[in-house]
Request: fold
Amino acid sequence: MPSEFHQRKSFRVVSSAVRVFQFTLVLSLLSSYTGSAEHHFLQSGAPLTRGADAGFLLDTPTRIKIDLSGSWTYSIDGGAQVNVLIPASYDFRGSVLFERKIVLTQDQLDVYTFHLVMLGVNYAAEVSINGEFVANHVGGFTSVVEPLAPTVLQAGRENVIRIAVSNELDAVSTLPLRPAVWGIRNYGGITRDIYLLGTPRLYIRDVTARAEPADNGQSARITVRASAEGIDSASAGATAPGVKPSFTGFAFEVVDKISGTTVGKSGVVPMVRRGNEWGEMRAEIAIQNPRLWSPESPELYLLRCYLVRTAAKETRVLDEYDLETGVRNLAVAGGHLQLNGRRLIVKGVTWYEDHPALGSALTDEVREKDVVMIKNLGANLIRFVGHPPHPTMLDLCDRYGLLAMVELPLVQTPGHVFAAEGYQDLAQTMLREMIVRDRNHPSVLAWGLGDEIEASHPAARDFIGSLAHLARSLDNRLLYIGEVPGIDACTDLVDLAAVNMRAHDPKTFRAVLEARRSSRPQQPVIAAKIGTEVQQENRRGYSDPLSQEAQARFYLQRFEILKSLDCDGGIVWSFNDWKGDRPALTVHSGAPLVHTVGLVNAERERRLAYDAVRSIFHGEKFLALAIGSHSASAPIIFVLVGFVVLIGMAYVYNANRRFRESLNRSLLNSYNFFADIRDQRIVSLGHSTLLGFVVAVAVAIVLSSILYRFRDSLVLDNLLTYLLVSDVMKDAAVTLIWNPILFIGAGAVFFFLLLLCTGGGVHVLNALVRARISAFHAYTIVMWSSAPLLILVPVGMILYRVMDSSVYVAPAFILVAVLLLWVYARLLKGVAIVADVSPLKAYAAGVLAAVAVAGGLYAYYDYAESMPMYVSFLSSTIVHLQ
Reply:
């Protein structure tokens, strides 16, 4: 029997190990908070674009703009103020207070009504000027035009503008939701232009123009709706006898952008006051022999809207509001898209508002260079996935001849969120802001109401239906949702089938599109997201699925299928690489946040696929691609480590009689074995430790085999994100999974510490019920209860290869589950024997403990990350995107 000294020594060893495990756990938790300690800003500081290229709220003679870009200060949590150049993106999660001071003259305040214009502040912003609250806004991709009360700004003194910004997203209430994996980077900050707009006291608030050609193409009609805001003080007074009363109204003029000549105009349409507001005015302008807008010939007109006061024979312009428009006719006929009476085949790319040096605070120069590269590609459309773009981007689409699909940031949304209180109102507000801002662009083909959402959920139909109804009340363009393959729910509520195909194999690609075409033949069908990953430096031939040759071949094959199916086109996913918001397991770039699926990389360097897609879009023949000699092989590390462990165990088993007898008895006669431990303590601490460590290695080998085998699974990727709440922990997990030797080493340490922790838990619980289990007993019971897991050593050696066949995946998981249940039952049996309590009580307590742990974990993940909701979403949606 061990002496009292050895008992105390064993207790100290166990206690020290438990403290090491606790210390490691604390460090990992702290790392989740310190991972965002660096406050990194990506600064643009680009000045406001003026003149004809302004993109939004064009400059006119009656208005002024005071640019607020450039130098601001920011502070975090009340800390020191630091200079930053706005627009800028901050690349961390948190809240930042921005501040800027400006001086206005009395003349400016006397003449103009000022509005704060913010084209993009992500995500939530609260604005105050001189300490007075001005506005709240939610949504980083839609814009704010907020009129300022006359008392807010002061003349001849510094006006302090403060904008409190938070980019915190959550799993249930923000739009967008915090992404799981493969989402866009959630940069914070004042990421787009910001300025003060000065308008006359009575000003044009909004103008909507709809230009449609006549059937014969010889004329066109532009229907204009306009509204005004403010007080017409001059017309409020009495009119002298015999003098024709003055009135205020709208006049419209259409100017050819190229020649500058007027091609149509209207008379003055009087405004009518309705209560406290001005009624909306409507006018029609005829144009003869219009030049139609199309991707091949992007002809534009300038619509000038005048707010005028007419008195006697004099007409004076009070305000001018200009916008660009184009004449074109978009229709669906025979289940296909038609533009200006001709079949439209979509040749598109997705584009992400991201740049490694600027974040989402792109300059106009970067945007235009991207548009030029896309146009040279032969594309005729850009899909803005999950985010309405900067207005200048749509202005560039108008001018260069690129159609646009613009959509809400409603991405991968579980159905339960649709039913949440206030979420529909939030989505409708954002949709209204998006459409009202961008509906005058002739390039906009369709509005997107969501992407890869859980459309099959019962709450989705009412939600999407309400958005569709609102969109149609604001504009007449087509509607779509980014569909998940094989899920046809809610598609009758929209006009266009936009099916996200990602990297599906050719047979599935064809079958899904054929089924979608036949299910609703009246709807045009577009493969809206076709893409595959690539490694930048990989030129090993298309036999390597991650090579540039394989990416090029992928597009050549998919677009050939689209052509044979007579679909309405396809959209490449994507033009550029981008930075994600959460670490992703399924990326092959070597960096879990960098998604390399672009035709060009993040720095806009062209890949081979760019030239392949260019040949497709231009109808040219592409050069032959090298096949290479790549072949997939199973990693040898699982076999090597398992072989070493087996040899070592065989040596110890044969060389040490006491260890051999203990192992045999623990497996074949466990009752007597645990009874002897209780009465005689016949097992040494060294043997228990050795067994525990070998078991930990065995579990690590098996788990590494499973995770490495499914490292390309979107389902596993999402599950890991839900389970590992901290991005730092997920990043570490991704690194380990992709490096099996590191995983086995770290995993062995982790699982051995987990065994120690379990022993500590057994000791603490028995102390609470005053049972007779010492630390040595608890440690020994846990280690020898795990003995059946030794079988995982040979299993782990072959498991990776066995799971190549899907037939054996389920049996492999069942085997592991059975072994774990056997070990848990042995643990409860050992506790009952050593503590000398009824086995029934021990098993009941074990079941209750397991239920309590499972319930606690369920409650935590439900509260912290709404994980049960997302698991349901995972099973009904993400699994179809593989």
Observations:
- The chain has four domains: 4-34+634-881, 41-199, 203-231+244-325, 358-618.
- The mean pLDDT is 89.
- Residues 4-34+634-881 form one domain.
